[in-house]
Amino acid sequence: MSFAAAPAMAQDRERTNVEAPSYPRGAERRGIEGYAVVEYTVTETGEVANATVVEATPEGVFDRAVIRAIEGWAYSPAATATDGLQQRFDFNLGG
Predict the structure, then answer these.
(1) What's this model's pTM, rounded to 2 decimal places?
(2) Which of 24, 26, 41, 85 is the most buried (most CB within 10 A)?
(3) Where are the alpha helices (DSSP H) in 6-76?
(4) Model confidence over 1-38: pLDDT tens digits?
(5) Spatial separation of the C-alpha atoms in residues 94 and 14, rounded to whole Å
């Protein structure tokens, strides 16, 4: 499983904590691979807020895992919130 680098906008704020999503057991047992893209806001204090899945294949399989993971991320504090960040998570079995 992997996730792509954060967009340039997010790199202005240093990530202080990153959690990878867990592969959903049901998907792993059935050999399902795919991806999910999450859009989110980073608050002034560096917390992730308003995380929503905006694209996923297959739909609904990885949503809960990526939302749980991204909500555990943290960024350095800043003067204002950063809206509209996106992160793609790829779920691949066996490498």
Answers:
(1) 0.85
(2) 85
(3) 8-11, 25-30, 63-70
(4) 555 544 444 557 889 999 999 999 999 999 999 999 99
(5) 31
